[in-house]
Design a protein that fits this description.
Blueprint: H1 10-17, H2 25-34, H3 36-57, H4 60-73, E1 89-92, H5 129-132, E2 139-144, H6 159-172, E3 179-184
Parallel strand pairs: 2-3
Antiparallel strand pairs: 1-2
Helix pairs in contact: 1-2, 4-6
């Protein structure tokens, strides 16, 4: 569900629900005061929804994989600190912004606001080849460069450590999941 659905301005809504001849300043002021509890309840519900959506991103498997990677490659004294800046993170790979997937015609550079309904006249729905060939990752492992460099040369990435990290992730991930490694500074 798109989070913009929950952005309700209750005083404005109350004013719109009144007949035009009753929209006086004093009555609108009273209505805006009366709608404050509704705004507070909506703010609480929106906050709770946001928290639950954040909690759902961190299921047991994600936490265990992240813990395992930080235990094996990270710094042991900072393993329980989730705010540590050099922490190896496991991020969700799906796009969760609530925007619809828009289908474009090949060879047309126009951007449509929303897709047309299927079956409408004068319309051919063909995906661009680039869209069909994209790989969508189920999750991304974000690893700081610091954990993957050679001990003698701090600028060159040790391919053996990268292979070891990939082996650990492939061992503990769910079968059939596609993932991507991002090395950040």
């Amino acid at each position: 569900m798109n989070s913009k659905v929950l952005e309700i301005k209750f005083p404005y809504l109350a004013a719109l629900l009144l007949p035009v001849e009753l929209r006086k300043q004093r009555l609108l002021a009273v209505l805006s005061v009366l709608t404050i509890p509704f705004s507070a309840v909506l703010a609480l519900l929106t906050g709770m929804r946001k928290e639950k959506l954040q909690e759902l991103k961190y299921n047991g498997q994600v936490c265990r994989l992240e813990y395992c990677l930080n235990y094996r490659f990270g710094e042991l004294k900072e393993i329980d600190n989730i705010n540590y800046k050099d922490r190896i993170r496991v991020l969700d790979g799906t796009d969760s912004d609530g925007k619809p997937y828009i289908i474009y015609r090949r060879g047309v550079n126009a951007v449509y606001d929303k897709p047309k309904k299927r079956g409408e006249r004068n319309q051919v729905i063909l995906n661009r080849r680039a869209v069909n060939n994209q790989t969508f990752y189920n999750f991304t492992v974000e690893c700081p460069k610091r954990w993957l460099v050679l001990s003698d040369n701090k600028n060159k990435i040790d391919e053996q450590k990268v292979l070891e990290l990939r082996a650990v992730v492939n061992t503990y991930k769910t079968k059939g999941k596609i993932w991507n490694l991002v090395i950040c500074n």
